[in-house]
Amino acid sequence: MAATRLKQEELHASVSDPVLDTMNFLNGITHRYPEAISFAPGRPYDGFFDVEQIFTHIRRYLKHLEEQGATPSEVRDALFQYGPTSGRIRELIADSLRKDEGIDVPAEAIVVTVGCQEAMFLALRALLAGPEDVLLVSSPCYVGITGAARLLGTEPVAVRERPDGFHCADLESALAAERARGRRPRAFYVVPDHANPSGNTMSLPQRRALLELAAREDILVLEDSPYRLVSPGTQEPTLKSLDRERRVVHLGSYSKTLFPGARVGFAVADQPVVDRQGRTGLLADELTKIKSMVTVNTSPLGQAAVAGMLLAADGRTRDLNIETAAHYGSAMGAILQQLATNFPDADRTALGVHWNEPAGGFFLTVDVPFRADNTALVRSAEEHGVIWTPMSYFYPQGGGDHSIRLSVSYLTHDEIVEGVARLARFIRDESRRGN
Ligand code: PMP
User: Fold this and answer.
1) 53-319 adopts what CATH topology?
2) What residue ranges do the domains of the chain occupy?
3) How far is the CA of 400 from the centre of ligand 1 (A)?
4) CA distance 23 to 29
5) Distance between CA 240 and CA 104 in Å, rounded?
6) Do 12-41+322-433 and 53-319 come out as alike in CATH topology?
7) pLDDT of 332-389, one tens digit each?
8) What's the 358 CA to ligand 1 centre distance in angstroms?
9) How far is the CA of 350 from the centre of ligand 1 (A)?
């Protein structure tokens, strides 16, 4: 008997999302050219990870449970058993959010998730109730949010960032346009600090204006900010800490501040939800219901390791990340300096090469005078030994064809110096080709 063959086009459209192909393509290139220096991956630098620490952290958490009066069988269950769907470590997260981020919410407003990715998915599932509901995203945007929206059968509406970042007026007109089409805008997704992929940060006045706009337009803001606490210097306040009307759902990740292998993130969803009988609960409760049918609960092992780290730092992940933030800050400084050295002012203007200068985070963008597509990327890897990410991957509705994203998180100083020299040769070569 012939084995079953399924047709991809008969599966949900999300499996044919071109974004997945482009990501696979990028991984393929990285494997095909192992000698190339890659500015593509947004993964954390692993020089600070130490295997033994995992055991120390888990032990610390178990000791904490004992100190809190847990019996031996409760301690055992905390690792081996299914756990509460909303998470075991909400108190510790709430404490940490107060100390790190000025976010003051009760533990009940938190849902512990499998990374920020699940938090996005739960929030979108809850908010996008019908075909008229719209998610707006600051664009270029993180592929995880576009992908999550597409899994749910909806296409996010892109609000284009300008060269100097997000403008409230652009969101306002996008909202008006959607309403005019009979659609109901529910939420606006934004990475306000050192965004992935653009590297842009919203100013304090922009943050306040966004919150006022959200109130005026009756939408929620989905705030995702994994790079704040791994960036050097003082950061602008989180949108959630400025939020007086519970307009902001804060989507948290420990992937950059602690470690991504934990797969622990969270949603802060303190919005009141009234049911048909007039009883009021929190949006977090609704997200928990959805979570119970998606991942049941976040791995207790991952939560235990995260909890141990939070306890070790007395909740101050900012303090835990002083060294990492300095590391990433100096990597960003190094790449900016190398770009300036390789493209002196006059060349920059003559060639039409520009880049932004983020004060933190993992990413920056370089505008180039040619189409920075997959074909150019292959030439870059093959002929020049350097890999980057086309910015076009991050525009849900097209754009970014002449820009590239560079990530500095994973490379050593020497690799950055050599990588930018290679990149500069590639850019000059490509400009001469006149594509
Ligand atoms: N949001 C942004 C902006 C990201 O860049 C990433 C991943 N690097 C995530 C969310 C995903 O985070 P997590 O690993 O917690 O799922």
Assistant:
1) Aspartate Aminotransferase; domain 2 (3.40.640)
2) 12-41+322-433, 53-319
3) 21
4) 10
5) 9
6) no
7) 999 999 999 999 999 899 999 999 999 999 999 999 999 999 999 999 999 999 999 9
8) 18
9) 37
Q: Which residues make beta-bridge pairs with 133?
A: 184
> Which residues' Cβ are closer than 6 Å to ligand 1?
42, 115-117, 142, 144, 191, 196, 224, 226, 253, 255, 260, 265
Of 139, 142, 328, 389, best ligand 1 pocket probe by most atoms within 8 Å of the beta carbon: 142
Burial status of residue 61 (CB atoms within 10 A of its CB: 0-12, 13-18, 19 or more) = buried
Distance 47 CA to ligand 1 centre (A): 20
pTM (global) more than 0.90: yes
Residues 6+ apart with CB under 8 A from 384: 422, 423, 425, 426, 429
Q: Quick one: CATH architecture of 12-41+322-433?
A: Alpha-Beta Complex (3.90)
Q: How far is the CA of 143 from the centre of ligand 1 (A)?
A: 9
Name the nearest CA neighbour of 84 among 293, 311, 261, 298. 298
